[in-house]
Amino acid sequence: MQAKKTILLWLLLTGLFLLIWRATMEANRNEQTEVGVGEIVRLAETGEVKSVVIEGNSVTLTPGATSASHVRYVAIADSAKPELIRILVERHIPFEERVPSQFMPMVISMLPWVVLAIVLVFFMSSIGSQSRNASAQIKSKSKMAENVATRFSDVAGVDEAVEEVRDLVSFLKRPKDFGRLGGRVPKGVLLAGPPGTGKTLLARAVAGEAGVPFISGSASEFVEMFVGVGASRVRDLFAEARRHAPAIIFIDEIDAVGRKRGGVSSGSHEERQQTLNQILVEMDGFAENSGVIVLAATNQPEVLDGALLRAGRFDRRVYMPLPDVRGREAILKVHAKNKKFDDTVDLTILARGTAGMTGADLEMLLNEAALYAAKLGHPAISGSDLEYARDKVIAGPERKSSLLTPRIKSVVAYHEAGHAVTAWFTKNCDPVYKVSVVPRGSSLGHTQILPQGDRPLKSRNQLLDELVCLFGGRAAEKKVASGDFTTGASDDIERATAIARRMVTDWGMAENLGQRTFGEKEHGIVFENERRDYSDATADLIDKEIRRILDQAFGRTENVLTEHWDRVVALAEALLAEETVDGARLVQLLGERPE
Ligand code: ADP
Ligand code: MG
Ligand code: ZN
After folding, report:
1. Residue 525 confidence (pLDDT)
2. Same topology between domain 2-103 and domain 406-590
3. 298 C-alpha to center of ligand 1: Å?
4. Closest-lying ligand to the alpha carbon of 148?
5. What is the rounded distance in angstroms from the CA atom of residue 513 to the CA atom of residue 504?
6. pLDDT the model gives residue 374
7. Whole-model pTM above 0.90?
8. Of 90-94, 326-330, 485-489, 516-520, where does mean pLDDT reach its minimum?
9. 125 alpha carbon to ligand 2 midpoint, in Å?
């Protein structure tokens, strides 16, 4: 398209140039000096001229083949013409009389206008293409109708969510059938879940399975542009979908425009409001069973405006949770398909060691492993490549260069050894898998545990044991430095406090406070506002109970460490020498873990 235009432009310019050139030639010819009839006859008679062409006032004299002179143009006066012709006839000199062309003089007089017109056309078209570029840029932000190859089989580990959207595929394929008995096919479905759990992927899979175009835009992009653009982008999106129906519209990050109304008003707030209203108008506007289904994604479903969630709008909600251990295994298998592994790799074990990771994390992990294996020149991805990638994804890349004094290294080694030993000898702690004093990200050391599957319920004893493990680091530091300790346990202490607080206030696990909750949470808001529904005296009891739980746990931790101190020392020394201890070496240092 663009290339064609440029060629056309060049053709025009070349043509124009040729015209001007010819016109100037013509003009030159017209400016020839007038010569007498005698002169022309003389030239003709001497044989220097082969032919004479008379055209209006100008005479073209073409020299014979033998002559060295050039074609000459001369002019004669009107009055001299009849005489010239008479003499030429008399003396048998061949000549030709032509009617002077009207074309060139006309072109010459029109030339300025032609030039002007060409320049104008050129300008207009370049301005046009610029604005077309700009609108194309805006449009490309939300990729317009796109055919996707994603299938439900690409979305692993979230079977329930897939089941929930499966019937959308039949709706899209046969919208009329479902309306036959007066049923209303859903217009909007909200996909809710943490980032990276596959919301976009699932939406694409619905379009892919149904074989309909996928038309997507991100709400945060709608509002980050100029005022008024958000609403018009929404209009475009829906217009495009109607053109392609049946189709899927996917609006990512809908919370960027769909927050609860109210609160402070600002410029960007206005823009959001307009964009949100446009979405509502469009959703109400398209006919039922028209074959357009809007999928929207958010990771904060609780902040959405009620107006969006009303019947006829996003009245279906599909939750995409963090995958559990079986889900993670399934996701790993999907992304392992195009990769080569050697026989040291067990994806089931990897799934167990990646608790809390999303589908996106797992995909990144396998990718990192593949890159690392390639870098090392391995023929296939090995268990140790995966190990490296997992550590990198969990904790960020190793900070090899960070300079730790021997004193700090030793503190970190005892801290981690403390965690590892308490976990090893405390019944309800997950088994330790790997201990390391290689600094990563913001932490200086790591004790990794291998969760035994996800626990939907936790007992009081399990929670208390968890506290014991969390205190392992601090208790070991305290013991080795005869009472002094560092800030290195701040994270452990924060987590322990949170667990103890919830035991008392949410789970009714306090000794003397009964089976009740304390503090009414306003659910759904990102910052949980707590309303106090108890007396000051009770507040005092709560604080005391939290304190008691934590102190007791810490006492137990210290007992475990005292009992097994020789192993703490052995492990810490090993860590200082070897940096990372895992597997058989761990068993060698700590002994078999008691059942
Ligand atoms: P979200 O939209 O929820 O933030 P995405 O759909 O963009 O997450 O996921 C990013 C990538 O992570 C996907 O392209 C896919 O490669 C991978 N992924 C996420 N969840 C899954 C899953 N359940 N199954 C397979 N791959 C997944
Ligand atoms: Mg996404
Ligand atoms: Zn710690």
Report:
1. 40
2. no
3. 14
4. 1
5. 8
6. 92
7. no
8. 90-94
9. 39
Q: Which residues pair with 436 in a beta bridge?
A: 446, 580
* Whether residue 334 has pLDDT greater than 80: yes
The encoded tokens of residue 291 equal 């074959």
Fold topology of 406-590:
Methane Monooxygenase Hydroxylase; Chain G, domain 1 (1.20.58)
pLDDT at 286: 73
User: What's the CA gap between 356 and 365, in Å, rounded?
Assistant: 13
Q: What's the gap in Å between 525 CA and the centre of ligand 2?
A: 22
What is the CA(531)–ligand 2 centre distance, in A? Answer: 35
- Mark whether 416 is an active-site residue: yes
193, 284, 440, 451 from 352: Cα distances, Å:
21, 46, 21, 6
Given CATH 3.40.50.300, say whether it is the number of domain 139-319. yes
User: How many helices (H) and strands (E) are present in the chain, helices listed first?
Assistant: 21, 14
For residue range 81-95, what is the model confidence (pLDDT) as tens digits?
A: 777 788 777 777 777
Rounded Cα distance between 246 and 281, Å, is: 19
Q: Which residue of 214, 250, 339, 363 sits with most ligand 1 atoms within 8 Å of its CB, as the best mutation to test the pocket?
A: 363
- Share the mean pLDDT of the chain: 81
Tokens of residue 319, six digits: 């939750």
pLDDT of 142 > 50? The answer is no
Tell me 364's DSSP state.
Answer: H
Average pLDDT over residues 258-269: 60
Is pLDDT above 60 for 530? yes
Ligand 1 pocket test target in 201, 220, 253, 347 with most atoms within 8 Å of CB: 201
Which ligand 1 atom lies nearest to the CA of residue 297?
A: 2
Q: Which of the four pLDDT bands, split at 50, 70 and 90, describes residue 526?
A: very low
Q: May I ask the CATH class of domain 325-395? A: mainly alpha
Contact between 202 and 193 (Cβ < 8 Å): no
**Domain 2-103 annotated CATH 3.30.720.210:** yes
Say if CB 476 and CB 445 are below 8 A apart: no
Q: Which residues line ligand 1 (CB under 6 A)?
A: 155-158, 195-201, 297, 331, 334, 359-360, 363
Burial of 437 (0-12, 13-18, 19+ CB in 10 A): buried
- Which atom of ligand 1 approaches the CA of 158 most closely? 23
The separation between the first and the last C-alpha atoms of the chain, rounded to the nearest angstrom, is 74
Rg (CA), the chain: 43
Instruction: Sheet containing 292-298: give its strands across.
Output: 214-218, 247-252, 292-298, 188-192, 316-319
Nearest CA to ligand 1 atom 12: 360
24, two tokens: 């100037």
Q: What would the pLDDT profile of 375-433 be if each residue is shown by its tens digit? A: 999 899 998 899 889 888 877 666 654 566 778 888 999 999 999 999 999 988 888 88
Q: How far apart are CA 296 and CA 218, in angstroms?
A: 9
Q: Which of 311, 262, 260 is nearest to 284 (CA)?
A: 311
Q: Could you tell me the residue ranges of all domains in the chain? A: 2-103, 139-319, 325-395, 406-590
Of 368, 416, 466, 558, which is the active-site residue? 416
- CA of 491 relative to ligand 3 center, distance in Å: 7
Query: For residue 185, what are its two tokens?
Result: 């096919």
Neighbours of ion ligand 3 (CB under 5 A): 473, 492
Query: In the chain, pLDDT over 90 holds for what percent of residues?
Result: 25
